[in-house]
Amino acid sequence: MTTPSLTDAAAARIAAIAKKQAKPAILRLSVEGGGCSGFQYRFGLADAAEDDDSVSENAGVKLVVDSVSLDLVAGSTVDFVESLGGAAFRVENPQAAAGCGCGSSFGI
Asked: Whole-angstrom Cα distance, residue 53 to residue 98?
């Protein structure tokens, strides 16, 4: 199973946020039921990786995903996108069969 990865833009943004909050540069990606398409992504800074987490790294920034969520986001890429509508983390998920306009929920 392929662990999700971070783009350079996402790694740089996470590093900046972590530095501002005096936390380790570790982003936790998890999936919860809900959202307009069935599942939704959750992001948050983590203090450390858990024993069952899958971990990938880009430029010293870690992305951690729990074993349950990994089944739903394997092979994904987390990007940070800035546009006229605002700035946000986006998940490019090859397993998502459906998504919503906000980009924060998906269906399989």
From this structure: 26
Cβ atoms within 10 Å of 65's Cβ, excluding its own: 26
CB 27 within 8 A of CB 43: yes
The one-character DSSP state at 103 is: S
CA dist., res. 106 & res. 93, Å (int): 9
* Alpha-carbon torsion, ordered 55, 1, 81, 96, to 10 deg: -140
26-41 burial, b at 16+ Cβ within 10 Å, e below that, comes to bbbbbbeeebebebbb
pLDDT in tens, 28-39: 999 988 766 678
**For the whole model, what pTM was predicted?**
0.87
Q: Tell me the C-alpha to C-alpha distance, in Å, between residue 85 and each of 79, 90, 100, 101, 102.
A: 16, 13, 15, 12, 11
Please give the angle made by the CA atoms of 86, 8 and 2, to the nearest 5 degrees.
105
